[in-house]
């Protein structure tokens, strides 16, 4: 349906309901117009450009929500397999464990498995409506589960229970759950420095929340251009660590002269490197440029405040509010350090440091830009988190930071202190401004009320999500619902024991209709609203809503100002469209009733209603442009999320290829326990079959560069056309990459590669493979090997 219910959410009015005034009269009518329009004429879809644009935007948001969940699941799979592959790398995994890992890679088969019966489905429908509409239960559960259980629960909470990331009711309920979790975290904190720092279920929740669609959209729109413009300068070296600068300097001198002068020994301590005049001369301009780059990132982020997703700003607001209550003596700088700990360290900085993981760039940044981004990140970390007056207290947070940007440990960073000091006030102002958003408590109550009128309140949930949530609730039911008369206890008692987790292949997705057995669905919204809105106001709002719909449906009258409401009603009533005829006749009668009640006056052309209808249409006209702009932005986000999905699937394909290689090198008999050496069968040694050599397969320098496999190359441009690579696999899981120059029989360079080593590099987030003359992208090398050798 295309009506006012499609109006976008705004930070000032989270539900999309306006509180603006058009006249001193009727302010109450206008304030609930959006509410009424959600109910009015629900059987009619307005077909115009705005309606079509809104429908496309809704569909796009739904796709982003669904794809975000798929990516979250894939990322969990990759993390699991990273840890399990480690055992294979060390040849410490038995064959049955290898089979278990292989099953983790199976796709769901829609023909296998079965749904719970109708009675169970109804009970689950009641349970999940209760969990969704009363967030305190989920909030308590998130605090009770272990760190090993939180990811599975977060998948259900963030991407299923509240999976519609752009729907105000679900978003507000999720934020209400966050408030409860944060409040408990602050209540149990024993010291200021421990707040929100450790790797706990709460911190994992906060990080996961920022990875949803709106957060990804913000990062893409704000950081992508800035990061890409930086990494284009592949040779821009902004290293300021004196030891590294000194090492680079003497390497260059040695290459140019063939030897080192006696006054430049190798392996000097940091203080000697820092005192070297040449090192100081190299670092000085780099410091200036680094500060300029950091400043540009800072300005970009500060200027983007209005684009920060409402939910992220609201969490910042809760952190500030809870800190002030718990620690009334805390300085503004100390409070901002906690806000910055969430906004920068958990949201902004990971995207700056690993932009490829957030799909903000294509491929892995080259060596120098990658180091620059790390320095920018450290810079940002510092002035967002370590400028508090209560420095001694906040210093305790250092140990819990991912990169521990402690200036005590990295003395050379002290040279950036002037920049830090100059920006303290500005960054604190920004963090405080982030917190200035309205609350949604009043509108949430109305959101809940409207939910009772929906016939399509559904979630799409896998069987294992159902059963896992059921099981976790049963484990903690005494804490969650100590009274056996409470609704949660009644529902869990009726459900009984939780079914076991089904095999991955049978983990089908079910559509779960949500409804409450204790609350009566609203059949007639108009009648229900009569309790809180007078009958005359109800009549006025419905009349105005119908006129807006008529004008939108009759484009030829839209440009005629002022609107002649009587003529518009008459025209609609005499068209050939049965729907418009019905509306025209109805609204003519409604005008007459309003005139009898002396709410509007025919003699002035129904001026009051005419003005309000005109204002609504102006708003809808502007809204169309906003909808189109938002759609364009989210199209890019959706493409990014899909690209990330393809990247994750590529990683899983590499694991499949690796497991296949393990099976090839191991015996087919059950006696085999490793993929290496002689295997035993029935107590007798059996020599493995002689492996077949695959290759060589030839690739040019240009091919590998175009595919992004070559990240950096030291080969002169004029020689690159003569360079090619031969890749051979002498045994499953092992490879030889040979670099050749045309006309020479012998390879210039050969490197032996083992799939184990490559997977371990990827697992440790080491994305570069150094072949002396070129540096290769590890994930893309794995992809190439998988593509070339797996099916041969």
From TrEMBL:
UniProt keywords, alphabetically: Coiled coil
Disordered: region residues: 1-24
PANTHER family per record: GTPASE-ACTIVATING PROTEIN, RAS GTPASE-ACTIVATING PROTEIN WITH IQ MOTIF
Entry-linked PROSITE patterns: RAS_GTPASE_ACTIV_1 (PS00509), RAS_GTPASE_ACTIV_2 (PS50018)
Domain Ras-GAP, first and last residues per copy: 169-403
Residue ranges of coiled coil: 43-70
Entry-linked InterPro entries: RasGAP_C (IPR000593), RasGAP_CS (IPR023152), RasGAP_dom (IPR001936), Rho_GTPase_activation_prot (IPR008936)
Entry-linked SUPFAM superfamilies: GTPase activation domain, GAP, RGC domain-like
Protein name according to UniProt: Ras-GAP domain-containing protein
UniProt feature, compositional bias: Polar residues: 1-18
Record Gene3D superfamilies: GTPase Activation - p120gap, domain 1
């Amino acid at each position: 349906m295309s009506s006012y219910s499609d109006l976008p959410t705004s930070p000032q009015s989270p539900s999309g309901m306006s509180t603006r005034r058009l006249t001193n009269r009727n302010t109450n009518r206008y304030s609930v117009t959006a509410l009424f329009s959600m109910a009015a004429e629900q059987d009619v879809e307005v077909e115009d450009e705005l309606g079509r644009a809104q429908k496309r935007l809704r569909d796009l948001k739904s796709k982003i929500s669904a794809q975000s969940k798929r990516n979250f699941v894939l990322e969990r799979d990759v993390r699991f397999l990273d840890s399990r592959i480690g055992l294979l790398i060390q040849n410490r995994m038995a064959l049955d464990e290898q089979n278990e890992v292989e099953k983790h890679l199976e796709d769901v088969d829609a023909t296998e498995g079965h749904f719970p019966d109708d009675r169970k489905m109804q009970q689950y429908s009641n349970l999940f409506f209760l969990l969704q509409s009363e967030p305190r239960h989920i909030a308590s559960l998130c605090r009770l589960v272990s760190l090993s259980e939180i990811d599975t629960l977060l998948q259900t909470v963030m991407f299923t229970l509240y999976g519609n990331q752009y729907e105000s009711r679900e978003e507000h309920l999720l934020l209400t759950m966050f408030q409860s979790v944060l409040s408990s975290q602050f209540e149990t904190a024993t010291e200021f420095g421990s707040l929100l720092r450790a790797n706990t279920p709460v911190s994992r929740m906060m990080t996961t929340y920022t990875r949803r669609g709106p957060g990804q959209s913000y990062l893409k729109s704000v950081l992508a251009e800035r990061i890409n413009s930086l990494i284009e300068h592949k040779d821009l070296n902004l290293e300021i660590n004196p030891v590294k600068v000194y090492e680079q300097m003497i390497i260059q001198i040695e290459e140019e002269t063939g030897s080192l002068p006696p006054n430049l020994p190798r392996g000097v301590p940091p203080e000697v490197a820092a005192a070297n005049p040449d090192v100081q001369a190299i670092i000085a301009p780099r410091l200036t440029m680094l500060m300029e780059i950091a400043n540009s990132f800072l300005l970009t982020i500060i200027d983007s405040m209005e684009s920060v997703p409402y939910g992220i700003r609201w969490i910042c607001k809760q952190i500030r509010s809870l800190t002030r209550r718990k620690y009334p003596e805390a300085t503004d700088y100390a409070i901002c350090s906690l806000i910055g700990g969430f906004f920068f360290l958990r949201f902004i900085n990971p995207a700056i440091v690993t932009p490829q993981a957030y799909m903000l760039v294509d491929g892995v940044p080259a060596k120098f830009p990658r180091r620059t981004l790390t320095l920018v990140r450290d810079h940002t970390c510092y002035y967002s988190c370590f400028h508090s007056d209560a420095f001694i207290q906040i210093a305790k947070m250092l140990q819990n930071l991912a990169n521990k940007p402690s200036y005590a440990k990295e003395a050379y960073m002290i040279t950036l202190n002037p920049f830090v000091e100059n920006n303290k006030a500005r960054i604190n102002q920004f963090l405080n401004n982030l917190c200035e958003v309205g609350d949604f408590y009043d509108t949430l109550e109305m959101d809940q009320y409207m939910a009772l009128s929906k016939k399509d309140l559904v979630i799409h949930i896998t069987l294992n999500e159902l059963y896992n949530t059921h099981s976790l609730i049963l484990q903690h039911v005494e804490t969650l619902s100590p009274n056996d008369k409470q609704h949660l206890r009644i529902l869990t008692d009726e459900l009984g024991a939780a079914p076991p987790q089904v095999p991955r292949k049978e983990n089908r997705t079910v559509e779960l209709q949500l409804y409450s057995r204790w609350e009566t669905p609203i059949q007639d919204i108009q009648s229900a609203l009569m309790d809180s809105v007078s009958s005359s106001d109800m009549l006025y709002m419905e009349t105005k809503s119908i006129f807006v719909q008529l004008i939108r449906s009759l484009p030829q009258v839209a440009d005629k100002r002022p609107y002649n409401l009587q003529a518009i009603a008459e025209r609609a009533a005499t068209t050939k469209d049965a729907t418009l005829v019905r509306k025209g006749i109805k609204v003519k009668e409604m005008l007459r009733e309003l005139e009898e009640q002396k709410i509007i006056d025919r003699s002035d052309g129904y001026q009051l209603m005419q003005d309000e209808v005109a204002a609504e249409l102006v708003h809808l006209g502007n809204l169309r442009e906003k909808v189109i702009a938002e759609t364009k932005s989210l199209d890019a986000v959706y493409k990014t999320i899909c690209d990330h999905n393809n990247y994750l699937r590529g990683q899983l394909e590499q694991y499949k290829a690796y497991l296949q290689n393990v099976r090839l090198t191991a015996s087919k008999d059950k006696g085999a326990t490793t993929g290496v050496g002689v295997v035993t069968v029935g107590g007798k040694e059996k020599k493995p079959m002689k492996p077949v050599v695959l290759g060589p397969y030839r690739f040019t320098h240009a091919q590998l560069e175009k595919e992004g496999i070559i990240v950096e190359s030291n080969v002169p441009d004029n020689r690159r056309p003569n360079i090619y690579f031969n890749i051979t696999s002498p045994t499953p899981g092992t490879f030889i990459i040979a670099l050749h120059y045309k006309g020479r029989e012998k390879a210039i360079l050969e490197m032996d590669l083992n799939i184990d080593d490559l997977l371990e590099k990827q697992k440790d987030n080491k994305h570069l493979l150094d072949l002396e003359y070129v540096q290769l992208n590890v994930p893309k090398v794995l992809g190439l090997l998988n593509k070339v050798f797996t099916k041969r």
